[in-house]
Amino acid sequence: MKDINKNIQSCIDDYNKKMTSLVYDDPVGVLSQQEYEKYEKIYLEKRREKLRSHGLHV
């Protein structure tokens, strides 16, 4: 269980780094909207998995 949470946290951290770089390192919008949505989708799915693992239904 800890490995799963660690993996989810790793994905969340990776997503947060990518989102931060989108805002701070990509001021002219080199990354496409499609890439942004891909990262957002991964993040939201991992967050749902984490909530489900704690017994919440989302």
Secondary-structure content class: mainly alpha
Q: What share of residues are in beta strands?
A: under 5%
Span of the ends, CA to CA: 19 Å
Number of helices: 2
Shape: elongated
**What's the number of domains?**
1
Instruction: Characterize the biggest β-sheet.
Output: none
Mean pLDDT reading: 76
C-alpha Rg, in Å?
13 Å
Number of strands: 0
The level of helicity is over 70%
State the low-pLDDT regions, or none. Answer: none
Helix and strand run: HH
Describe the structure.
The chain is built from 2 helices and no strands. It has 58 residues and is mainly alpha-helical. The protein has one domain (2-53). It is elongated, with a radius of gyration of 13 Å. The two termini are 19 Å apart.
Which features does this protein show?
mainly alpha
Question: How is the secondary structure organized here?
Answer:
Blueprint: H1 2-24, H2 33-53
Quick overview of this protein structure:
By secondary structure, this protein is mainly α. Helices cover 76% and strands 0% of the residues. The chain has one domain (2-53).
